[in-house]
Amino acid sequence: MPDMKTYNHIQNRIRDKGAAYLILLDPDKLSLDRATFFLKHCEQAGVDGFLVGGSLMMSGNFESLIEQVKINTNLPAIIFPGSIDQVSSIADAILFLSVVSGRNADHLIGRHVIASPMIKRAGIEPISTAYVLIESGVTTTAVYMSGSMPLPRNKPEIAAATALAAEYLGMKLIYLEAGSGADQTVPDDIIKAVAKTCSVPVMVGGGIRSPMVAREKVESGANIIVTGNYFEDEDNWDMVREFSSAVHFKNPIEV
Ligand code: 1GP
User: Which class does domain 5-247 fall in?
Assistant: First the structure.
């Protein structure tokens, strides 16, 4: 097994700052000529790492964006793959996602069989992740693309049992996902139930558009917060520091 450098980095940030904050970069949404400024700005604001990925990849900027993260920051570039061709040796790690909320065998293990040799060849760190899709209003891209049903949002006990089963299967991270641009975020009751039941870190994302909501998710037990959509609008970039401080409740960044 490759070393767990990136996973350990995230674990250390959680220990030191109370929780970790990751920003999702969609190569179709962030232009390369603005990336340098944004990435440096994020690092200065205390962001702990970047997820890079998207569901369609219309632009072909996937590897170039990972490269920008490596050139402009000391933070890890973690692939959040929307499909199996999103593997790159330039990245530090890849979320090795299994959609455990669904019963679509292809997304539980099928794609993984094809992707594993590619990941090994690339020499990057796979982070075994239980991807738990939670119902969040309208159908999200993640639900549609996975061809599976999300978990009902009013059933924390199902979410907790699902996450525990994933942990017992050896997965290192639970990702509670409302979906990019979700109407409703992952309910606090679901986060609380999963955090109480599991001992691996719990990551929460989808529809988080304010520092207050990010903090609320951390207070419910989230160890890692992910935002994506909100910073696709350049007018919001001056809010990165506020999000970061809200997530890092143990060691807030000086503003
Ligand atoms: C999506 O959880 C991430 O996979 C981030 O969601 O884009 O809604 O912030 P948003």
Answer: alpha beta
DSSP secondary structure, the chain, as one string: ----HHHHHHHHHHHHHSSEEEEEE-TTTS-HHHHHHHHHHHHHTT--EEEE--SS--S--HHHHHHHHHHH-SS-EEE--SSTT---TTSSEEEEEE-TTS--HIIIIIHHHHHHHHHHHHTPEEEEEEEEEB--SSPPHHHHHHTSPPBPTT-HHHHHHHHHHHHHTT-SEEEEE--TT-SSPPPHHHHHHHHHH-SS-EEEESS--SHHHHHHHHHHT-SEEEE-GGGGSGGGGGGHHHHHHHH-TTSPPP-
Angle, CA of 119, 112 and 228, to the nearest 5°: 75
Domain positions in the chain are 5-247
| Ligand 1, atom 1, residue with closest C-alpha | 180
Q: Kindly list the protein residues whose Cβ atom lies closer than 6 A to any atom of ligand 1.
A: 24, 177, 180-182, 205-208, 226-230
Higher pLDDT, 3 or 222: 222
- 180 CA distance to ligand 1 middle (Å): 4
pLDDT tens across 155-198, in order?
999 999 999 999 999 999 999 999 999 999 999 999 999 999 99
